[in-house]
Amino acid sequence: MAKRESPEINAGSMADIAFLLLIFFLVTTTMDKDTAYLRTIPKKVETDKPQPPVQKKNIYKIAINSRQVIQARDSIIPPNEIESLKKRIKHFYTVNRWKKSDRNIDYPYYSYGSIQLYNKNIEELEERVRKLDVSDNPDERTEKLIAQSQDAIGKWKEKLEKMKLYQKFSGKNEIPEIAYEAHIRLESFLDTDYSAYVAVQSEIQRAVTELRDEEAKEIFGITYTTMNNFYQQKKTEDTPKVRTYREYMDLIEVLFPLKLIEVEPKR
């Protein structure tokens, strides 16, 4: 009796099976919400230009050593007092808010925008574009300057719309913006316990969320968290409420931005 030839396994089928298993793993794998933190990872910025040094007052440095002791700027926070970190971060954001003089020189300064200022900046840039755009065949440098100016006009117009919204609901003619360079810097070591790292991340998020909630409640009569929860559930729906909440949240995020730089762990 002749032996039957064993069927050869199709390589393409094996690849399909491997792909389906990968999808299954990605879909069924979950993270523990009690220990994980959710935050948008910033895009890597590629630039050849050396960045100017950031003034010390604009940095809130947090370091976690191998014994899980936290150093927040010049203060030592033992692990059992980590909740005090939230109050310190809120102070970093607010100590100089609405101060144009007698400011604390160890913390970020604020600038103050207005409808008049933003309109003036837009008009000056538009005039610059008109003066540059006089040739039918501009050189590369001129084209670059025009593009940069038009990009700046777009950004100033966005700020203008946020200022109008802020004025409408707050009744204030100026909008406070913390120094652009102001940020939180988180440093750790390779042997830093992961739970301590996550706990610090959570306190940072809590501090900024509380600031946003307080500001949104004062301006719009509803917390940032409430709007964000609704938005996350309904963001695929193009409804007036979804668009309004997104607009409100964008303004609140300008007033209290979360800029977090995570430094590569040290040995």
Automatic annotation (TrEMBL):
<keyword id="KW-1003">Cell membrane</keyword>
<protein>
    <recommendedName>
        <fullName>Biopolymer transporter ExbD</fullName>
    </recommendedName>
</protein>
<keyword id="KW-0813">Transport</keyword>
<dbReference type="GO" id="GO:0005886">
    <property type="term" value="C:plasma membrane"/>
</dbReference>
<keyword id="KW-0653">Protein transport</keyword>
<keyword id="KW-0812">Transmembrane</keyword>
<dbReference type="GO" id="GO:0022857">
    <property type="term" value="F:transmembrane transporter activity"/>
</dbReference>
<keyword id="KW-1133">Transmembrane helix</keyword>
<keyword id="KW-0472">Membrane</keyword>
<dbReference type="InterPro" id="IPR003400">
    <property type="entry name" value="ExbD"/>
</dbReference>
<dbReference type="Pfam" id="PF02472">
    <property type="entry name" value="ExbD"/>
</dbReference>
<comment type="similarity">
    <text>Belongs to the ExbD/TolR family.</text>
</comment>
<dbReference type="GO" id="GO:0015031">
    <property type="term" value="P:protein transport"/>
</dbReference>
